[in-house]
Amino acid sequence: MDLKLSIDKNNVPQHVAIIMDGNGRWAKQQGEDRIFGHHEGVNSVREIVEACGEIGVKHLTLYAFSTENWNRPKEEVDALMELLVATISLETPNLNKKGVKLQVIGDIESLPKSCQDELQESINITSGNSTVTLILALSYSSKWEITHAVKEIAKQIEEGKIKSSDVTSRLIEKHLNTSQWPDPELMIRTSGEHRISNFLLWQLAYAEFYFTDTLWPDFRKQDFFKAILAYQNRERRFGKTSDQISQN
Ligand code: FPP
């Protein structure tokens, strides 16, 4: 049965964040090297972006490369960067056709120039789209992002532009990479790991977490719809009691 048919279209999360994990293990299971798993992972990315468009998820953030991933063997880092450039270049017409707007978060200046240029071109080409915003977290970590935000705010205080009493959670949010989008209501992590790994620590404060043993290259539309259905069965209380929620 197509799980999409069971989804309540009035209760679809506006923003889903995903830690795409398990490419390396998937490849090993096939007797291949890790890069093969990353290549196959691109097919899952394509399907999940499409699935978001089908059910009305407006924002999708994918953790594609963390600041810690720079510590992987050089061949793997180089292959991931090449894959990224090739994928963006190949997929941009398709993204455009499906109304997908590409955006990035993270320390983009630390990426190879070819990667920055390809990303910028795709961002420009897809800038007018509005069906789904695909946000790639690249050379991203939450501690990096929050440190960056705190430095910017401290500088403004030093320069006398604002006072320390002006620092509110809203002001901090304005200095995060994600300031223009709503916080994710749902965070999915594949491959059986139950960690948040320095991903959107601030923005996930009230998100529902969904963990699955499925490895990222095997995670396809029906797996995504299953996660959405699990989300729809959760009671989101935001610190209130269950009774208060049901009275509203
Ligand atoms: C984690 O699996 C995955 C990554 C670090 C890279 C994710 C990249 C892709 C899916 C391909 C490119 C994406 C886009 C958006 C074009 P892992 O290598 O940590 O797997 P393991 O835990 O089994 O070793």
The value of Rg in angstroms is 19 Å
> In the CATH hierarchy, what is the architecture at level 2?
3-Layer(aba) Sandwich
Q: What is the strand arrangement across the widest sheet?
A: 3-4-2-1-5-6
Order of helices and strands: EHHEHEHEHHEEHH
The helix-and-strand class reads alpha/beta
Q: What hetero molecules are in the model?
A: farnesyl diphosphate
Beta-strand residue percentage: 5-15%
- By DSSP, the count of extended strands is 6
Specify the number of helices. 8
Which residue ranges are poorly predicted, with pLDDT under 50 across at least 5 consecutive positions? none
Kindly report the name of the CATH homologous superfamily.
Decaprenyl diphosphate synthase-like
Helix content: 40-55%
Distance between the termini: 33 Å
What multimeric state do the chains show? Answer: single chain
Shape estimate: globular
Number of domains: 1
Mean pLDDT reading: 96
Strand count, sense and barrel status of the largest sheet are: 6 strands, parallel
**CATH class category:** Alpha Beta
